[in-house]
């Protein structure tokens, strides 16, 4: 409750700049030479588990969607993700070979807490990835992994998301090792990449300056599509949510390959497409999706380490050798872009209209 802005204009800005440090804290003592360890859990948590179900709301839901790709790819466990408010009333089928994971910054979101209680009552093993110790969710779940992001004041979540994503990536590797489904070479590659995350989250002055310049024109947009594939799809959803939350501009996140099934009908020069184009994952696929949009005169802002000649605007991220590092590089760019647009519009970045930091009522 004593958080200060420390010279930053808004808490959100401070929290974006803090991400590199808090993510280091989040990894401290959890990355060993050849494996991941969590003091809070032991490997029995994954024993007898055939499926992981994730439940969350808002930005935490986006971390969950990102994790679903990592759990299937790395841990070889079936994983699905649900929005907590939907899950509660759909009469879900729950089986005890499912590990139920909830993700929450506050640990108090009513819908997520209720979903957790339902899973517990049905006899499932439950785990919460949470930023607040001794919150309702950490008191309810069988096990807790804390994200150690520190107090987050900005209503638009930033460092909570990056730490959640890192915890979930580490958890995917932890499960992979416990189930013996990852080679030691692959594990080394992943651990190496994880150690580089704090570097990828350092705010690059040039990128910040670029988002400041782009914000001048982009505040006039009347529609934004954020597009990506694989984990860059949840990242696109998160980019769009940030813009909506604090700029009140209409934005949608979409899986890039799905644009041709409807949304591309909206393409025109007033439609801004923010395209997440990582070098290390499905580059050719996203490139051809973006080419289609460009051919229909959509204004393209590419975020990529690779030059892309059809881009009207370009945010150049650092070259790395792992797609998750690109994910964090792009995350910072998206956060800065929405913040700069919001500032230029004169909005209250930290306390956007109609929103609350923690939604404890249904
Ligand atoms: C609110 C906040 C969002 C947050 C969501 C879930 O809507 O404004 O930023 O992502 O709740 O909160 P939680 O604390 O459960 O992560």
UniProtKB/TrEMBL annotation:
BP-aspect Gene Ontology terms: carbohydrate metabolic process; fructose 6-phosphate metabolic process; protein N-linked glycosylation; UDP-N-acetylglucosamine metabolic process
Source taxon at top rank: Bacteria
Enzyme Commission number(s) of this protein: 2.6.1.16
Catalytic reactions of this protein: D-fructose 6-phosphate + L-glutamine = D-glucosamine 6-phosphate + L-glutamate
Active site (catalytic residues): 357 (for fru-6p isomerization activity)
Record keywords: Aminotransferase, Cytoplasm, Glutamine amidotransferase, Repeat, Transferase
Keyword ATP-binding among UniProt keywords: no
Single GO molecular function: glutamine-fructose-6-phosphate transaminase (isomerizing) activity
Quaternary structure, from the entry: Homodimer.
Function, in words: Catalyzes the first step in hexosamine metabolism, converting fructose-6P into glucosamine-6P using glutamine as a nitrogen source.
UniProt-recorded name of the protein: Glutamine--fructose-6-phosphate aminotransferase [isomerizing]
